[in-house]
Amino acid sequence: CNSNFWNRFAATSEIAKSIKTEDLLKEQGIETDNTPESESVKKSRETLLNISDKKINTLLPTTHNVAYTPISTAIFQGYFDIVETYLDKNNYPSLNLNIPNTNNCYPIQEIIKQYICRNKNEQVRKLLYEILERTEKKCLITNTNRQKLSPLQEVMQTLDIELNKAFLLKIFGNNKIP
Predict the structure, then answer these.
(1) Which of 8, 21, 26, 95 has most Cβ atoms within 10 angstroms of its Cβ?
(2) Nearest to 112 by CA among 88, 132, 96
(3) How far apart are CA 19 and CA 41, in angstroms?
(4) In the chain, which residues have pLDDT < 50?
(5) What is d(CA 108, CA 140) in angstroms, rounded to the nearest whole number?
(6) C-alpha radius of gyration, the chain, whole number
(7) SS (H, E, C) 72-139
(8) Cβ distance 130 to 168 under 8 Å?
(9) 68 strand-pairing partners
(10) Contact by Cβ (8 Å): 162, 170
């Protein structure tokens, strides 16, 4: 609805441009609230920080039909400090990045989406490489149930040559890349 409205009516003032940007980002599921953290954000962060190593690979219930692993939840909510904590093998030695959510989407795909949404942010790029290193090959070519795209297809759309090369090397190893 918001994108349809803004496609029909041009934002001419700076305030209107700001509102348009916020509306379009919210439509994509990206929160832009610059106010201090709300209670729900604090509760969400606290829940994710209190996940034990025993429960790091379980699917968490949500308010909609898809259940996510804790690391996928932290990724799509943009809590990259929590993602770094989860990736630390000393804190979470049993973390398995090859467990899909109920939409058949793996953490590698979630981090690729964040990489694209955040205009190829370096912090997200670093996390993407760490997750790629610990992800099995089959997860890179498995299509999701919702978008019908694999992580490899999504990373190819970024046109990032280094990232594409890293994915192809992960899939084919040292064999000749076709």
Answers:
(1) 95
(2) 132
(3) 22
(4) 35
(5) 8
(6) 18
(7) HHHHHCCCHHHHHHHHCCCCCCCCCCCCCCCCCCCHHHHHHHHHHHCCCCHHHHHHHHHHHHCCCHHH
(8) no
(9) 60
(10) no
pLDDT for the residue numbered 18? 63
For 83-123, write each residue's pLDDT tens digit.
999 999 998 999 999 888 888 888 998 898 888 877 778 88
Judged by DSSP in three states, 60 sits in: strand
Q: What's the confidence (pLDDT) of residue 126? A: 92
pLDDT at site 86: 92
Nearest to 129 by CA among 100, 97, 102, 105: 97
- The pTM (predicted TM-score) of the whole model is 0.71
Q: What is the pLDDT of residue 130?
A: 92
Tokens matching residue 111: 């981090």
What is the distance between the alpha carbons of residues 57 and 96, in angstroms, rounded to a whole number? 6
Instruction: Please enumerate in sequence order all residues whose Cβ is within 8 A of that of 138, keeping only pairs 6 or more positions apart, or say none.
Output: 98
Instruction: Classify each residue of 30-44 as buried b or exposed e, where b means 16 or more C-beta atoms within 10 Å of its C-beta.
Output: eeeeeeeeeeeeeeb
